[in-house]
Predict the structure.
Amino acid sequence: MLTINNLQKHYLNGKTALRGVNLEIGPGEIVGLFGENGAGKTTLMKSILNFLPYTGSITLDGEPITHRNISRLSFATCEHSFFPTLTAEGHREFYEAHFPNFRRQRFDALMEFFNLPRHRCIGSFSTGQQNQFEVILSVSQGAEYILMDEPFAGNDVFNREDFYKVLLGILDPNETILLSTHLIEEVEPIISRAVLLHEGTIIGDQTISQLEQHNLSLMQYVKQSYHYRSDRVGKALNLLIEKEE
């Protein structure tokens, strides 16, 4: 169980990114993390990984996250965490040497699925290919908790749709995904739970089953939670027309 208690993050410039976040994520869940730009999604993930100082507590099965258990977590980030001058094969060798639970068969299958070259430096890949490779590393590391921060940026809709299906097919029952994305409607079929962040605070946390019981789609739930105003586009256009006249 990944447990977050009263997590707060304040930056030196005075900005508060997270405000008393409480969250529990259990084995086997696929959790969608949603929110506007600047809501705190990336900060939350980096805090879980101990990349940032914070106040509050984050534990994995009751233990703080340190070098002793960090290998139980992996991270796919659109900021990229690979070595740009190293080839895909070089990364495989590095990961196999440092992560005893590395999933070689999964790595090979996903490399073939995405049709990625094994002997070119990752820095020479297109943005979409780099993001694909980042995801491959995160799900092949052998981690139990896989954090993904906008992992599908730069990938076309067909690659994304196929990968969702592959992801569901390869995950073991105890593997857990925390997925931050703006592609709300696309990921609804694969997630089991939706967590909504707004200005560093959790404003919603519902399973997809709970939404179905209330005849709500994920997008409807998100719009309700954020008090989305459907008339704001029309008002903005009318204001622009009035100014032009």
Remarks:
- The chain has a mean pLDDT of 89.
- The beta strands are 2-10, 16-25, 30-34, 55-60, 63-64, 73-77, 145-149, 176-180, 193-198, 201-207.
